[in-house]
Amino acid sequence: MSSDQRQVGFGGIWLPEGEDPRQQDEQAVGELATYRDYLRHYRLTLELKCQDLGPEDLAKQSVPPSDLSLLGLVRHMARVEQSWFQRVLKENLDLPRLDEDDPTGGFHKVEPTQESVDEAFASWREQIAGADAWLDSIDDSILGEKRAVRPGEEPTSIRDILVHMIEEYARHAGHADLLRETIDGRTGQ
Asked: What is the 3-state secondary structure (H, E, C) of 3-25?
């Protein structure tokens, strides 16, 4: 793709001024509210980077032999949400992982079909809803409580897990930026 074909968004931003759903008028107050605000922002970022693309583009691998694709990121983040919120934070480690048979964490064998896209986004949104329901049930006072990540290992705090979730989304939002740029040249925050 040549530089004259690049679509650089709206003056370096992804959406026109005032149309970005990630922007809020009020700043979050409190530790948990801040974590939730960052999670919301990065979840929306991943969704925006996938917006207006068909199954072929969403499943496109940018740098073969890597399995990395936008659709793979959505599947992976559904798995990450499920593992951390449903298994670890809700203390249900016996719950089978999503895509447990995929050692790549959701990136392998991504099908470029509308059915695959619908399934991936439905699963991801279901896991986000479950995570948000759990987050609605807690407050700042329990963020120091510990949860076992794996049987027999040292537990980690809820706070650390939430920061890890933000880190996971932030890292993959960077991947999504690059993937989207290879598809249609669109860039922006």
From this structure: HHHCCCCECCECCCCCCCCCCCC
Structural domains counted in the chain: 1
Residue 51 burial (C-beta neighbours within 10 Å; 0-12, 13-18, 19+): exposed
For residue 156, the cross-strand partners are: 147
- Whichever domain contains 36, its CATH number is 1.20.120.450
Q: Does 11 fall in a domain? A: no
pLDDT at 38: 94
This prediction's pTM: 0.86
In a domain, 149, yes or no: yes
Other beta carbons within 10 Å of 81: 26
* pLDDT score of 24: 66
Please check whether residue 114 lies inside any domain of the structure: yes
Residue range 133-162, pLDDT digits in tens: 999 999 999 999 999 998 888 999 999 999
Domain that holds residue 52: 28-60+67-184
* Cβ proximity of 112 and 146 under 8 Å: no
* Low-confidence residues of the chain: pLDDT under 50: 1-3
Tell whether 2 is covered by a domain.
no
Six token digits for residue 32: 């948990």
Count of Cβ atoms closer than 10 Å to residue 27 Cβ = 8
